[in-house]
Structures are given as structure tokens and as C-alpha cells.
């Protein structure tokens, strides 16, 4: 009788765990795919405004990214993106009403290396895996100096953001993210020299550089290219 009672008591906690837990096939958690992935993405680049109105404007964004697992919840990524946009070209030697020479179509390119951290570790929860990322790279408009002396050129850019992965199957996934490219540009000295109407593009007290926080919103499809 005593042996039967002890056996029942020992089995009781196990029965409770079985009731409140999940069998592996019904668990909301799944192992996250850690193989190298490639993703194609599209979205919108929301450009910050600038005092002179000559920096690249907002426009559609397209890109590709490669991601590789480096350990635990961390991944390293290489991203290339292009924004189809435009910018104003000014001639500061003209009067204010005649300074706008043209609105030029340009391609604004970004390339960066990012470090991504999955907030759910190496698992997904109900096929979802939120993440944060930060990186460093370059931003360029591939243009030479314009008639007014301004040149965007190629600049160092910092990037950061957060997003979520939806992983319905091992070999492909969807993701959506909000991010930013943050970099600095300088205005030429000609923007501070008065024109024939005694006005200048920028007042003498204005900053000669412009740090810009440019937001991006993108969605993408990731897959394993080599499997």
C-alpha cells in the first residue's frame, strides 16, 4: 500500500507538467534557421529635410542583403540598397528667384555591414522572430560637384533599425523593418556668399554641415540560395 501511494505521488507532478506544457509538435517555439540567407527588399526612403534644399529627396528603395549566423542570436549582414530620387541644383551666384538651375534625377546608393540580434534567441515564437540591427557603411550619389559647388559624393553612413521575421518554412521567410541611414554632408562656402540681390542661399549664421537621419521602411523575402 505504501509503495503504491509513493508511486502515485511521484507521478503526479509529471502529469501536471504534461498538462500545462506542449508536446514538441504543438510548441509555439521552433528552431530558427541559421543557414546563410539572401533577401530582396523594397520600400520607401524618407529623406530628412535640409536648410538649403539641395540634398536627395524621398523616393522608392530597392536592395539585396546577405545574412550569415555568427553565434547565438547574432548574425552579420551585408546590404546594398538603391534609392531612385532627385535633388535640386542651385547656382548661388544668381538672385534668389533664379538660383534653381534644375531638379536632377539621381540614384542614391548605400552599402553597409550590419550586426543583427534576434530578440527570441535561436527560436521563433509562432513563426515570428523580432530583431534589432546596427551597422556602418557608405552613402553615395555617384555625382561630381555641381555648378554651385555642392557635392554629395561618398560619405560614411551609420545605420540602425528594428524589424520582425516571419518564418513559415525553413527555406524562406518574410521580413519587415523600420530603419535609418544617418550621415553628414557639408555645404560649400559659396552658399554663404551674397548674390546680386544681396541674399545668399544660407545665412552666415547657419551650420555648414548637415547631419541627416533618413528613415526607411522596407519589406522583403529571404531564401537560401545554396541548398
Q: So what's the overall shape? A: elongated
Oligomer type: single chain
The helix/strand order is HEEEEEEEEEE
Question: Quick check: average pLDDT?
Answer: 87
Order of strands, main sheet, comes to: 2-3-4-5-7-8-9-10
Cα separation of the termini: 60 Å
How many beta-strand segments?
10
Question: What about the largest sheet?
Answer: 8 strands, antiparallel, barrel
Regions with pLDDT < 50 over 5+ consecutive residues? 1-20
Please report the first level of CATH classification, the CATH class. Answer: Mainly Beta
Range of strand content: over 45%
DSSP summary: helix tally: 1
Protein structure class? mainly beta
Domain count: the total is 1
- The CATH topology label is Porin
Write the layout of secondary structure elements.
Layout: H1 2-20, E1 29-31, E2 37-46, E3 59-71, E4 74-90, E5 100-118, E6 123-125, E7 128-140, E8 154-166, E9 172-186, E10 209-223
Antiparallel strand pairs: 1-6, 2-3, 2-10, 3-4, 4-5, 5-7, 7-8, 8-9, 9-10
Structural account:
The chain is mainly beta and 227 residues long. The chain has one helix at residues 2-20; strands at 29-31, 37-46, 59-71, 74-90, 100-118, 123-125, 128-140, 154-166, 172-186, 209-223. Strand 8 (154-166) and strand 9 form a beta hairpin. The strands form 2 sheets. It has an 8-stranded antiparallel barrel. A two-stranded antiparallel sheet has the order 1-6. The longest helix is centred in the first third of the chain and has 19 residues, at 2-20. It contains 1 helix and 10 strands, in the order αββββββββββ. 25% of the residues are buried. It has a single domain, classed as Porin.
